[in-house]
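Troubleshooting entry. Yesterday's outputs looked truncated, so today I'm pasting the complete records for two proteins to confirm everything comes through intact. If either block looks cut off, that's the bug. Protein one:
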Amino acid sequence: MKVLLVGDGAREHAMAEALANSAEGYRVFALSSYVNPGIREAVLRTGGDYVTGNINSRDEVKRAISRFNPDFGVIGPEDPLFYGVADEFRANGIPVVGPNKAAAEIERSKVWMRSLMWKYNIEGRLRYKAFSSIEEASKFILEYQGSVAVKPSEQVGGKGVKVVADIQAYLSKEKRRALSKSVNEIGSLVKNEIKIIIEERVDGPEYTLHVLTDGQTFLPLPLAQDYKHAYQDGIGPETGGMGSISGPGHLLPFINQEEYQGTLDIIKKTADAIRTEAGESYKGFISGQMMLTELWGPTVIEFYSRMGDPETTAIIPRIDSDFGYLLQLTAEEKLSKATLSVKEEGAVVKAVAPLGYPLRRDLATGKEIQLDLKAMRERGCNVYFGSIAYEGGKLITRGSRALELVSLGEFQEASNRLDGCVKMISANTELVFRRDIGKSLRDQIEKAEIVRYSYRNRIKRDALGVSADWAPNGGLW
């Protein structure tokens, strides 16, 4: 069978490798905006073909479908979904892993997502206000007395989120004044009329549950946690993700089976609500970016309409089942036939980026990287290629996270192993990565225990989701 993969990052490399390694004997074809070395290897190994072009263009996707005549498709990133690329596959009679444009709105628009959760009374929802006026949003921040999170109203690659908490009252005015000044910057990231969404602030350990669905069957994957901030100990600007962890088993050390099941229930209810609103079943990945909070327990921060990156490179290597075949079953709406076997051992992922990422991508672009893949694999590290192009036999950076290194095993040992493997990478620039990923989870475990005690008390008092200073319909009193 022939499969057409759309996308060009480390997530898509991991998917291409899984397809190439499948016992089903797939021939892998790819459409990317540049030649990813890892995807290229999978394409060549399986006798497929590779074309470059605009992955968000339905016309270019249609040409690739006509050229390759695939049996099914897999769409990796979110932007092609927002532009209706999955619709193009289905319009040409090709089953595909990825929701249609209408269903992908669950990720593209935070306002639509929040309003949907309130309309259908889905657990784990946060109260919010949406603003098309930057001035009105700034005024609200200065006047409202509670803790808030301020976000761009649509998906902008993980950028722009600001949080203010009133832990020290005497800092309140200064914090709010600084946050209100950030609203212009956040609003400038958004193209739509509604610019800003302000949500009630919650706190707790974060995690992600990715679920494959063909519209009827739901197949939950192992949990993962993304490390979004650029620098050690969770400081610095937010990025697309500087690393991740997954495991052991289906869980994480700070999330229990009951919370896993509660999260899955939220995702299922959301998919059902999308089907009602969009008029069609949700097919593909639907992923809950969650936080364990005292307000609800499992609480939705946002949804993905695809697999997260770098969570993907922590999850797929831990799956013993034929992941490529799971993708085929999803595309063909036969997921009820699937079985999922997961390694008990965990995984740690560390992203490596050129100096300049994420704030000065111009400085991080056009650098040459060299690495000893064989030696790294012998040491217990696998490598997935991200924002790096194969050009004239060289590996040239494109301004974002260039490599994602993954190692399986106990978290501390795997993290140390990755640090050693990073030393096997050379470049004509400084490389940046986080050493702390996976090395100390004690704080998160302790925080989860505190949060768990609090939300269980709310359950006893029938007070889940109750917040005194926010109105029950999602707005303010």
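Protein two, checking that the full record survives here as well:
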Amino acid sequence: MGDAYDGSGSGDAFLRAMWRVSKKAEMGGSVKGGSGGGRGCEGEISRDSVAGVSESPIGSGDIKTEDSSEFVSTLKMEDSSGSGIKREGVDDSLEFISSLTLEEENVARVVPGRAMVVKFLPTTELRMVAVGNKYGNVGFWNMDPKEEEGDGIYLYHPHSGPIGGISIQPFNIAKIFTCCYDGFVRMMDAEKEIFDLVHASDDAIFSLSQRPNDGSCLYFGEGRGGLNIWDLRVGKSTAFWALHEERINTIDFKSQDSFVFATSSSEGTACIWDLRRMGPESLQVIEHERAVHSAYFSPSGSCLATTSFDNTICIASGDNFEKTSHVFHNNQTSRWISTFRAIWGWDDSYIFIGNTKRAVDVISRTQRKVVISLQSPCMSAIPCRFDAHPLEVGVLAGATGGGQVYTWTSR
């Protein structure tokens, strides 16, 4: 990590912070309501065991989401003249979302050049984001640094091309996985202070994911539509499937049924699969007219949101995700800005996506339209990639084509 460090000052404060958080996570102090377990490979599959796993309905494990009104019961609606928020048909259920604000101290340039991915560290011990950019940099921004840590920004250069994905498990925060278009998957081990090589391929690796509560395997989109499952315990691939005709842009697992996952592809489709019964046909296909840049399950797993270059966001629901509704949204970005990817917030109520007018559009799942746009004088560029903090409701990060990160917080 010392050789890969590309920031100003020293990275020692970052390593110390990561070490502290990692130790607390191992004792179960970093994840609310979690056991800190999941280190093994319970229910994990291999090439030989796929056929032997029992099948279950695609919708199994779905739970009801917490109603958003509980989040806003103690908040008061801000006057629109001073909130910095543009309202369109606001009602009382948007009170919590409309309270999100962007303060000047929550804006920082974390990486040089275009941001490809932004991820919060899944911990409440410190508020930190990891950002991967077009040039192979991975930057970290500690938003609550101690005085001796300066601006809290630490920049590394472990790859030689665009970062395709970042994966961080809450029970092992010191080990952060990154993949790159250069064909490499690396693991940043903050305790050993190395960027270890996990996998090298002649093909580009465009996306990366892990099943919830399982740190034993990596799932990444490799080459032209391939999905590779890499077992970290034995250091080799245990399965490889050609799922799409073009590259896989995102891989996302359901939180309540982690055998079910969704892929988005540049071929113009998003597909839902079940690891227990993989075959030539997916469980469900959501079609778009142009490339699909993302497909993410809602927190409860009962809905799926896809983002396409055809200027629509599709919301799929139902027992088998057979009910679809396409919402118009301008998803056209220039070559200098990463493509828009709509993400879910902290429950199943709202979807967040960038706006070409330097704003954050909020789409209501029930109304199927943009109901509010978050704007701020502090936002000087178009946010294109987002992440909602998994453990802090009301903390939202958006990254831009210039490597800036804007963090919205609730009042």
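Both blocks look complete. Sanity check on protein two: The helical segments are 12-26, 69-72, 80-83, 95-98.
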